[in-house]
Write a structure and sequence with these properties.
Shape: globular
Number of helices: 4
Strand order of the largest sheet: 1-29-28-27-26
Radius of gyration: 23 Å
Structural class: mainly beta
Helix content: 10-25%
Number of strands: 30
Number of domains: 2
CATH class of the largest domain: Mainly Beta
Strand content: 35-45%
CATH superfamily of the largest domain: TolB, C-terminal domain
Distance between the termini: 44 Å
CATH architecture of the largest domain: 6 Propeller
Amino acid sequence: MSKKWLTVIWLLSLFIPLQVHAVLTIEITGGTETALPIAIVPFSNENGASVNISEVISNDLKRSGRFAPLAQQDLLSHPHEQKDINFKDWRLLRSEGLVIGKVASVDGEQYQVQFQLFDVYKAQQLVGKRYQVPASGLRRLAHQIADEIYQALTGEVGVFSTRLAYVAVSKGSDGITSYTLRVADSDGENPRTVLQSKEPILSPVWSPDGERLAYVSFEKGRAEVYVQDMRSGRRSSVASFKGINSAPAWSPDGKRLAVTLSKGGNPEIYILDIATGKLTRITRNTNAIDTEPVWMPNGKELLFTSDRGGQPQIYRVSASGGTAKRVTFEGKYNASADISPDGRNMAMVHASGGKFFIAVQDLQTGALQVLTKTGRDESPSFAPNGRLILYATEEKNSGVLAAVSVDGRVHQRLGEAGSDVREPAWSPIRK
């Protein structure tokens, strides 16, 4: 394989005709047969708020594929206090959990919200909390409550309060193409534009604290790596060398970026110290393309894609450099690695029969499982709890985002008729 491989990948990313709409919608497309029934009673007085809190919570839990909220018309009663709960009624509905809550506001600007989660069969409260938030914080609070419920019932951290970054491209009535880097809540709501350009934007990636995005922009006519602060909007170019500047990946401590540079004539992996600008070259293989670095959670090793064996495969190397060891052996094409937060599983693009799928490999056993079926999948990104993998795919000749659970059972599609989005990145858990 030659450098044509890297060029082809870039061309596919840059020139697919795209349209964009502002809001991503989420559809569960499979995997809810064994979901846990749960009753979420509409909160008292929430109709006066700008956000229907119980509805957001219900949609979040349903989206996870692990819960099946009861339909509102099936609820036998609408308690808002523990003393009003008849647990026998909820057992008849076979609901494992019950969520009730209240919303109150004096001035319509500040809100007091409380919720309680009960184990129906034990008739015991599992979680109960009160909050005070401004009206603008109600949607985020609803996601936070959903996270609390999810963790209480599964023992795992919820990710409903996280965000998604993605790139959308649209063509205006004047025929000019516009590239937009957006950030949205995990349910696709609250989309915000981070950067808009007439030139391509690629490879957004979140810093470990969720405060910065690194990405590749062609706004000056060639690829440069930028880092942008999400609160202030300030940004700076951190890699603008001659040739390729691409594929940024944050170190676990947030102080360094692994990048692909061809400043020496061949695409190689480098580590850039953000504060000092110091560059350290990690790979040295002048007969191959080394790209798409990703850090292991221990901060001591990197995974990257290379064609040094003749076809794209994934390799592991020390963050201080040295001999790289091949990690993938099943199939002739494995690329675009991402690592689960615990470092055990690796998501990747796996090719078979000329089609491209999202697969996951256990790094301890080497076992590989193909998770998707469309054959046009790319850019996997783990959820920060390791349960789901976000990726880009195509449906009816339009680009959409999708998500799949690591066991392949739960499938979601994130998109909207007529829209086309790519380059997804899942944020860390918000503090």
